[in-house]
Amino acid sequence: MTVIDVGEGDFQVEVLDRSADLPVVVDFWAQWCAPCRALGPVLESAADARDGEVVLAKCDGDANPNLVRYFGVHGIPAVKAFRDGVVVAEFVGARTPAEVASFFDEIAG
User: Fold this and answer.
1) Given a cut of 60, is residue 1 above it in pLDDT?
2) How many domains would you assign to the chain?
3) What's the CATH number where 78 sits?
4) Domain residue limits at 57
5) Residues with active-site annotation
6) Beta strand residue intervals within the chain, DSSP E
7) pTM of this prediction?
8) pLDDT tens digit string along 44-68?
9) Residue 54 class from Cβ within 10 Å (0-12 exposed, 13-18 middle, 19+ buried)?
């Protein structure tokens, strides 16, 4: 499974630059957010099922307010998929495992 923690110091390299090679899904979350805690394992399972075809990056929104502001995150959990340094798909809020799987299939294909 390819799951990494990212922040303001390494977002450029770990997400934007890396997305030139394979899709990177960023989970903007916070510790206090119950839907975030529920969605996290679902995202990790979806990334694991794609066996290196997609990178999942976890970004603590409270610790990285500049990234939250820059990417227009207004509610969490916020999930954004990057390819070639730009957002190509996104959703806000908890999703079912089937919905998350479909999201990953769309961006991995």
Assistant:
1) no
2) 1
3) 3.40.30.10
4) 3-108
5) 33, 36
6) 3-5, 24-29, 55-60, 78-83, 86-92
7) 0.96
8) 999 999 988 999 999 999 999 999 9
9) buried
